[in-house]
Design a protein that fits this description.
With 256 residues, the chain is α/β, with parallel strands linked by helices. Helix content is 34%, strand content 24%. 30% of the residues are buried.
């Protein structure tokens, strides 16, 4: 039976791969990569760099396909259906790749940024394909170093404080309000810099973009002072590269 490895590859640094991930790479016959277009071509290059670093003999095939576009203008009640349509379109592509490019006794792999269990669609897409019943395969999951773990490591701080909860959420959710009962909040997928909404509160921010790559940018400090600097850094980075991936931790200072 076909075998699929879903491999967490960390935040971009080839050195962030675990020994388990390297072992999975070495047992893979075909790597599937979705191309997001010329603007994000360096994401494909980073994956190739990881393969070159850990598989110098190149005893594998690399198969690329174009990633379907998602309706990013959809908001409100239309957001979830738009994401669902995009995931199904991805499932169509994954299904075709597995059926046409992978032999019955071969192993394929999808290289997932960070950790496959955190804000990534690959596992859900593979389950959708299996539910369709058109192609059979088994799969396993190799955890990776997430951008969240890499972020706090680069800032030399903990993710949580003693006996205190931490919440991981999105910019879309943060726009609805600061989570109740939580003083440490990690925010991902924030294209609109919602952190600026809370600049009048006693909050520190630990921010990072392109974490684990040569383009890495870090900033931290009181939110009121640091938010304008982050906005400038983001604008410069987007102008230079055409895209940005960033994550941040908001930490409310103890009351009283």
């Amino acid at each position: 039976m076909r075998k699929i490895h879903v491999i967490g590859i960390g935040a971009g640094d080839p050195d962030q791969l675990t020994l388990q991930a390297v072992k999975a790479l070495r047992s893979t016959d075909v790597f599937f990569i979705l191309d997001k277009g010329e603007v994000k071509s360096d994401l494909v290059r980073l994956r190739r760099d990881i393969l070159d670093a850990h598989l110098p003999d190149r005893a594998y095939r690399l198969v690329e396909a174009r990633d379907p576009e998602r309706d990013r203008a959809a908001g409100g009640a239309g957001y979830s259906p738009a994401v669902g349509d995009w995931r199904s379109a991805r499932a169509d592509i994954y299904e075709r790749l597995i059926a046409e490019e992978l032999g019955e006794d071969q192993s394929g792999a999808f290289l997932v940024w960070g950790d496959p269990a955190l804000y990534d669609s690959t596992l859900g897409i593979l389950e959708e394909i299996l539910d369709r019943g058109a192609v059979a395969f088994d799969y396993d999951v190799v955890p990776g170093i997430s951008s969240v773990s890499a972020l706090v490591a680069r800032h030399r701080t903990g993710l949580n404080r003693v006996a205190r909860p931490v919440q991981i959420t999105t910019g879309r959710r943060l726009a609805e309000g600061f989570p109740e009962g939580v003083d440490d909040v990690v925010v991902m997928l924030d294209a609109h810099q919602i952190f600026q909404k809370y600049a009048d509160q006693d909050i520190d921010i630990y921010w990072g973009a392109y974490i684990g790559t040569p383009d890495e940018i870090l900033a931290s400090g009181p939110l009121a002072e640091t938010a304008p600097r982050i906005a400038e850094l983001r604008a410069e980075a987007r102008e230079r590269k055409g895209w940005i991936m960033d994550t941040y931790l908001l930490r409310r200072r103890p009351r009283g």
